[in-house]
Fold this sequence. Notes:
This protein is of the alpha/beta class. The chain is built from 16 helices and 13 strands. It has a six-stranded mixed β-sheet, sandwiched between helices. A hairpin with a 3-residue loop joins strand 9 (about 215-225) and strand 10. The chain binds alpha-D-glucopyranose (GLC). Alpha-D-glucopyranose binds near residues 79, 202, 222 and 228. Alpha-D-glucopyranose binds next to helix 6 and strand 10.
Amino acid sequence: xxxxxKYRSAPGVDVEVFLADAAExxxxxxxxxxxxxxxxxxxxxxxxxxxxxxxKMLPSFAGRPxxxxxxxxxxxxxxxxxxxxxxxxxxxxxxxxxxxxxRFVIPPALMGGQGAALFDYIADCLKASVERNKIxxxxxxxxxxxxxxxxxxxxxxxxxxIQWTKGxxxxxxxxxxxxxxxxxxxxxxxLEFIHVAALTNDTASTLAAGCYGDPACDMGVILGTGTNxxxxxxxxxxxxxxxxxxxxxxxxxxxxxxxFDAGCDNRFDRMLDGASLNPxxxxxxxxxxxxxxxxxxxxxxxxxxxxxxxxxxxxPAVFSVAYSLTTEQMAKTKEAMAFLNDFSMHDVxxxxxxxxxxxxxxxxxxxxxLASAGIAAVVSWMDADxxxxxxxxxDGSLFQKYPGYQACMRTLLSELxxxxxxxxxxxxxxxxxxxxxxxVAAVADASHTSSSPLRVAPDKVFYxxxxx
Length: 468
Ligand code: GLC
């Protein structure tokens, strides 16, 4: 730790006072939560009428699955840093079997490169996965594409990317139909016999996966690298959309709540936003999701160091680099602070470890409360007095793995609704975006598959029909 700037604590600045102030800055009072919910409703209303709104409220062209859907589907799920490839047989009555499920890491260069390179990579991964798993190309020709970014859908199997989120800046995709882009890549790779049956957001896939097993499911939420939610909306409430004239009943609507402005940002949020790739966008996501929590905690820690309140005033190199602290590290080390060892910080005092732990608590609890406020807003939009049962299908590592996160979300619902909070259940849905996409594709493709000729795979690709 030689040759480092050593910060001295300013007279009168005390660790406990700093932490109490930070807790206050990240705190959202009960009244604040009620205001957020009211504001959320206003933005939903505006978004559903295509007025200017921080909530895009995008129709998905997918209705409520019945649980009876059957069929064989390939599914790809481009969510964030990972690409998932799945091969799924839906057996009806909420049952399915996975013939293959593989995960590929998106090389960072592709997240900021050219569109064709990204879609070629996706097609390559799909091809590698089906070959490795000896998938029968005569059976698995329908592809469900979960594309976890804001898309203005034109139909169940087409849609234009509105804008990238979660650190993607790939050129030549915004404003274009992503189904066409993947279809062109499949063709370049000799996979033109694969038909893209459905394009869905990960929230819609998660909701569909939830509905497949539970008819009371009416909302899908992602709390992972990014955050977002969708729900079942009555068509009559979706306005200014002539393309929905023939629709009746309900449709899944993607809120894109990551862009919601909760109006309670503090100076750490503003610092993070100002230095981000997409300033003034995705406010809610920057306060809630896994991509950003580590960075928010790091910004608080750096300020403590600079005030001479932590690590004896010496900023360890690791904390000087933006995004060096990940939410995964926060989650794994809530108590033990083992990540400090990963950063070669072996001699951190117990008092400093406690401070870091407290910063993690402050940042993660706000995230959980905001996520839960978002759920409360959507549920109360569907059912103002929470008279019905609501199952919320939720996927994402923050929800699944962050210690205490779910409990904190539940506490907020109880604060808001008392006993009635028990009518809202959270159901973790792993692999939801793969399975649910297949469910959406099954609904969409029911008529298509019965009338369309089989697109036979070339001999060289996958396994031939007669080999199984
Ligand atoms: C981002 C995307 C959104 C997605 C969410 C979760 O907010 O804009 O479409 O659902 O991340 O992956």
